[in-house]
Write a structure and sequence with these properties.
Length: 350
């Protein structure tokens, strides 16, 4: 396909596709290892340290990828509470804050496990997500095993069950990471929204605001365009009237000169007087010519003003077209957000 980006494995990929992952788990080293693999740290993946708790970005397999590693102490915190919901309430601000860092929303929540054993209660993290953001968040969750799955059946793992059977054994290879991206695409492809968002109401309010503002701008541009059109028409009318007046005056001058010349030809007796009159007429003629030049200069100025107005009108049309394109984008975004909201409502109702 012409213009398509080719990833490291020779597969076509759209560079505009952005993937955002939130990585969860109770083992910092394992999470660092998973983050290194996803971000394409092939050479020193084992020594990779995620650093500050903020999204880290990279270009991987032809896609723009953002990865956010969450604190490992969340799991120990949840395990320490006899009443689970009390632990969730204390973590609520942190969970909401980290979710907001991947605005507008995460494409997948990745729970990192060492193997398929149900030993460390990592499922508490999935339950906490569900309590804070609603059960629909589990539709965007997937388990990452960092060791080979051999004889054990991953589907018996409680976390995999909560993720509706979605898991992957993640290796630090392009093939494995590309497969993760494909599984994420398959997971979100059947949903109205390709990412989980807790900000749909904000989107709707912002879109209404921009739409109203755009309508005001368009109305103002339409008024200005109408005023420019009227101004251009007025200039055209004045130019036509000026040309007609100049033409008539020049015709009258020529007729007077011709008449005087005829008189000079037929009356030699008053030749001297006639010459004097001719001299005066020539003086008048020069004055008229000067006046004519003034009119011509005025016509030139009006023509320049007309050209400037035409240029302004063209620029106004281009700006109006640009605003129409922006309005189309806003309407498409509204449609997408509406579809996402409907999907979330249907999920919630189910």
């Amino acid at each position: 396909m012409a213009g398509a980006h080719i990833d490291e494995l020779g597969r076509p990929a759209d560079p505009r596709v952005k993937l955002r992952f939130m990585v969860l788990g109770g083992d910092d080293a394992l999470m660092d290892k998973a983050c290194a693999a996803i971000l394409g740290e092939r050479d020193d993946g084992d020594a990779f340290r995620f650093g500050n708790l903020k999204p880290r970005k990279a270009q991987v397999c032809g896609r723009q990828v953002s990865v956010l590693k969450t604190p490992s102490y969340w799991l120990e915190h949840l395990k320490s509470y006899y009443i689970f919901i009390n632990g969730v309430k204390l973590l609520l601000p942190e969970l909401q804050f980290f979710e907001s860092l991947l605005f507008p929303g995460s494409n997948a929540f990745l729970l990192v496990l060492k193997n398929v054993k149900n030993a460390c209660r990592e499922n508490y993290l999935l339950h906490a997500l569900s309590e804070v953001f609603g059960k629909e968040v589990l539709d965007y969750c997937m388990v990452l095993f960092m060791n080979e799955v051999r004889l054990s059946d991953p589907n018996n793992n409680s976390c995999v069950k909560l993720c509706k059977g979605r898991y992957q054994v993640l290796k630090n290879t392009d093939e494995s990471v590309y497969r993760l991206f494909e599984k994420t695409r398959e997971m979100t492809g059947q949903k109205k929204s390709i990412f989980f968002s807790n900000h749909l109401e904000c989107f709707r309010k912002a879109e209404k605001h921009f739409e109203a503002e755009n309508e005001i701008k368009q109305a103002k541009l339409r008024r200005e365009l109408l005023e420019h059109k009227e101004s251009v028409e007025n200039v055209k009318t004045e130019t036509r009237q000026l040309k007609e007046a100049i033409r008539k005056e020049a015709k009258e001058i020529n007729e007077r000169i011709e008449e005087e010349l005829k008189k000079l030809a037929t009356g030699r007796e008053n030749e001297l007087d006639a010459l004097k009159r001719k001299e005066n007429q020539m003086k008048d003629f020069q004055e008229l010519k000067e006046e004519l030049r003034v009119y011509e200069n005025r016509e030139k100025e009006l023509r320049n003003e007309t050209d400037a107005l035409k240029k302004s009108e063209k620029e106004m049309k281009e700006e109006n077209q640009k605003l129409k394109e922006e309005l189309s984008i806003y309407k498409n975004r509204e449609k997408e957000l509406k579809n996402e909201t409907d999907a979330l409502k249907r999920v919630k109702n189910t």
